[in-house]
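Methods — Computational structure assignment.
A single polypeptide chain was analysed. Its primary sequence is given first, followed by the predicted tertiary structure written as structure tokens.
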Amino acid sequence: MEGIERELVEGGTYDVRVDARNPKGEGIGKINDIVVFVRNMKTRSGKTYPVKITKLYRTFAYAEPVEENSKLFIGNGSLIV
């Protein structure tokens, strides 16, 4: 149905636009009205990344990068190939 947004579920894969980063190097974005923290990923603000929701709470969620990304940066700046 058009106009109805998909509800977030644990284990689901979503595209999230990263709008900021916290001091730990986690990307911060939003899906619907839920804040999403993307762990283990050094990101650029303004880019969209595919992520998998690992833990979902009422107002926020934690996610991990989807493995289909062949090159990802982790928080310490190392490149994962």
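Note: The chain has a mean pLDDT of 79.
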